[in-house]
Amino acid sequence: MGRFSHISDVHLGAFNDPYLRKRNIDSFIWALEKSLEENVDFIIISGDLFNTPIPDVPQITNAIKKMREIVERDIRIYAIYGSHDYSVTGSSIYSILVAAGIISDLHRSREDNGKIVLEPVVDDKTGAYIYGMYARKGAMESEIFEKITINPPSDVFKIFAFHSAISGISKDMQFNMPEIPISYIPKNMDYYAGGHIHERIEMDLPEYGKMVYPGPLFASTFVDLEKIAKGGSCGFYIVDFSKGINKIEFIENEIIRPELVEINANGKIPEEIMREAISRIEALQLDGRYLLLKIWGELSSGRTSEVDRKKLIEIVKKKNAAGININVSQLTSREFKGIEITNRNQGNIELEIFEKFLKQYGGKNESLIGERGKNIAISLLNLLRIEKNDNESGPDFKNKIINATGKIIGEEEWK
Ligand SMILES: [Mn+2]
Known about the structure:
By secondary structure, this protein is of the alpha/beta class.
């Protein structure tokens, strides 16, 4: 008999908004405490524990303290690298936690005649065989996946932890992420501990076994928050097993349910959007609640920047809301239409894009008009391509770029 927690896509360090950032970290601490309360034998984290390889350290200290507490209570935390917390250079908080013995990394492999043999980690308390396959950015793990082989004994409880999207498994097309064919996944496991897809999936796959993606423990993007606002759930799983699975239970994270206001901007002008946004916000009870405001569509005239975010933030503050996140990523303006590019060479494509967009520019800033505008844009683009030398300090590099920018756009305008 054994029991474990399956947590995924925690994304510690996500969000700039301090309110959301704290909710994200608190969710992880809650999941660990809940696991302790439920007397799990071990915990599996199937990737993306951190939002970036090296998140802001003071922000995640409490989360790491809690992990240490768990390990000290003799509960192992097994994990794999996700696509977010892996770094090519090996500089990651994850690798430090592995070295410190807080995380037990599941990915153990050796090469054998062109094949990659995955070795299990055998949990000493329950005897479960746990295999792990790490992830890389952009599904780069696919090449390795293709070559892996596993030779488990038949009479043990087997878990396969991974962090990849599998073709045909997710219904969610929103992410448009690279996928791995199901044929790359080893068959005949008792439990597949999936991560990466930000959606909860639970299914029995013939020839395979129980395939489970908990989805994000809380959220790391506007899209995740939007799903929660629309009634979706987030959380993690607790699994009971003996020879096979006895029971799996989803534990819902109810830390916040944001309010969502969606505004269709099609055919409207910025003033109309502002009026609609204000009247809809005013009609809401926002005390202590978090508001998501999504404005999408094509404005009939005016600029997207004329939607006055500062003003909306002030109104929401006055209503004692916990905060607001405004998403205009799908808001466009008829004044800036898509352009067609005929060049095929990189340098020429860049020139053509600047030329065509500058023709659509209706403002009066002379630096942005015609040949001069084009030259400034190209020079700035080239400047931003410069990378910091290893022997150069951060502030020196920053000053170098700022000074060069001043020279390109003209000193007077750069202050
Ligand atoms: Mn993720």
